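ok so for the tutorial part 2 we go from a plain amino acid sequence to predicted structure tokens. step 1 is just haveing the sequence, like this:
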Amino acid sequence: MISESFIARPPSSGTVAGFIAWGTGELAASGIEGARREARLLLEIAYGMTTGWQLGHGDAAIEDAGAFSELVARRARGEPVAHLAGRTGFWTLDLAVSVDTLIPRADSETLIEALLAQRPDRGSVRSVLDLGTGTGCLLLAALSEYTLATGLGVDRVPQAVALAAANARANGLSDRCSFVAGRWDNAISARFDVVLSNPPYIPSGDIPGLMRDVADYEPVSALDGGADGLDDYRILVPALRRLLAPGGVGIFEIGIGQDETVPALGRAAGLRVEDVRCDAGGHPRAVVFVM
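step 2 — the prediction. this is what the tokens look like for a chain of 291 residues:
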């Protein structure tokens, strides 16, 4: 909870070091982990002062603290830093984000790492399909590595499709990809060398217990995987048999505890499980299927 002192008396001016200390205290009091690091990030968002610059200019004056105070208040209520900044980094890309899509996270980069391990020859991939594309992060990251490839991103949310297309333009990849609004693989008749997906996989009953910056600010439709978290895998995994080109690879993100159930769905559909790759935290995160 935000303290009464913050609500009634946000500072009007001060030094960089003073504002970092104040912001750190307010964020820590509201339960934000890494409060000092986040205070520095918010100061950078508000005034363009990089963390490196802040470290060397702690006594620099800030005459109008309104922008910083507002960001601290919003973050203390749980609003994600990426939403406050309007963008985030993913792989080697800079991506715009919005409330209409999941915020790209480092865990999802595991899918790109798995793809590179499976297809180290950068000329070996010519077509990529991304189901539930959101910001376009997976498709655009794949295209940035496989420069001869073209791709298609599908999302049922029209606003997400527009955002992904804008991210493609901003990263110089719009000439090699397109985005359409649709429900998963409906009406797709082509086959692809690579199919990527980060479907909703949180069991419905677990969503209220997620961190508030996820549960309160990210779209439930992109989180809720049904009673056991597997609803969308039951659709997507069997679809790989008609979506993958001969020798193709399908890579799906999974949640905690799904490293046996999702591969089992693939085996039941006649697919081979080539790999289950862990993220940086050591959690199984990407299942690799091949025809």
